[in-house]
Every structure is written in structure tokens, then in C-alpha cells.
Amino acid sequence: MAQDSYTLEELARRLGRDQREIERLAQRGRIPGRKVGGRWQFNVNEITHWLEQEMRELSASELGELERRIESTDAGIDQEVPVSSLLREETVQVPLLAKTKRSVLEGLIEVAGRTWQIWSPADVLRAVLQREEMMSTAFANGVAIPHPRNPLPEAYGESIIAFGNTIQGIPFGAPRRGLTDLFFLVLCRDTATHLKVLARLGRLIQKPGFLETLRECQTSSEAYRVICEADEELSSEA
Length: 238
Prior knowledge:
- This protein is α/β, with parallel strands linked by helices.
- It has two domains: 5-55, Arc Repressor Mutant, subunit A (Orthogonal Bundle); 82-235, Mannitol-specific EII, Chain A (3-Layer(aba) Sandwich).
- It has helices at residues 8-15, 19-27, 44-55, 60-69, 82-86, 101-112, 121-134, 191-206, 210-216, 220-235; strands spanning 5-7, 34-36, 39-43, 87-96, 143-144, 160-171, 179-187.
- The two termini are 34 Å apart.
């Protein structure tokens, strides 16, 4: 059975931060948590959503430290190259022919379905749309990382990443009404894998020159190679 809460000690260890700091933040309402029987408890899903937002403000080095502290037990992921180990050439689509948020998501789920691991596309689409309604997964740099609010192991067989690049930017809820053209769909079967992948993607999109090179790709195979090479380069960095 999946763990549904962290103790103060477990959360501090997972985040690589001092227990006293975590407790102070919880007391101030900066981290979602509650006391039960005089001891702090932190709901895994609430912490996951909090971390997703915190990651947006972290530097590449801070994301790297967080990534190193997260150990996924998913047999399909390589801890050193978490993105390229879940991305396949057939789950990359350049160009992605879509002009609206919904058509982007439908297209990415169809691309991910080429693996024959998407068992319930309708459930995946519903979950990803619900996550977008809560808060857009789009960044200010033209990238979006759509994903379900919680893992859906009953809807797909393996953790999967799909990538698509639309011909032109579309409204996807980015800050300051910016347009989005690069999309990474993340479908993980557990919370740890999900957070590890998000941390690595956060580092990738901060990597100098990466987004510019990715936008220049004319074919799916070229984009796949660029993503995998950048992922490999990050794995060699201290």
C-alpha cells in the first residue's frame, strides 16, 4: 500500500532540510501539515502539490539537490537519466498538430498511447484537465508540463513521458498570458517518480540553449535526440 503521509522526520529527510526549519514553516502555514496527537503529519498528495509550486522558484542546483534526494522505486526509470528512460522516440511528436489546450492534451495522450500502455485515455484526459483547472502547468518560457493531480496506476501500465512541439504557441495559462509551444506530458505511477521527473525537467528547461535547440528541431527523432543528450549531460554534472 502506498504511503499516504509523512512524519516530520521523513519529510525533512526527503527534502534535505532541517527538521526545525520544516516545523517552523508548518507552524506558519507555509507547508501544508497538521498535528495529530501532538505530532506533525504531512499528507503526501498535499506535499506533492506544494512541492510542484515550490519547484518553480528553485534554481537548477537546488532542483538537482532535491532530485538526488528522491529515490524512485519504479523499475522503468533510470535514476541517472529519469527523463530519457521514460521517453521513447515514438512518444515524441514534432510537429504536434494542435491549436487549443484540449487538443494538445488529447494529442499528447494519443502519442503516449503508441506504447500500448495507456489503458484508459478518457480517464487520463479527465485527470490532466482537472489538474489544469486547478492551476496551469505552463511556465513563462513557453514550456508546459501537464500531468494528473495524483498518479493513476489504474489508467496506464508504465510511467511514460510524451513530448510535443506545436507549430505555433497557443494559450495554455502561462504567466502574463504568454504562449506555449513545448509540452512534456508526465504520467508516473507513483509520487516519488513524479517528483523526480519534475525536478529533472525543471533543470532541463533552465539548461542554457536547451529550449532554443529543441525549438529548432524539424523531426521527432531529432527532438528525441536533443532531449536525451541534454538529460545525459545533466547526469554527469556534480
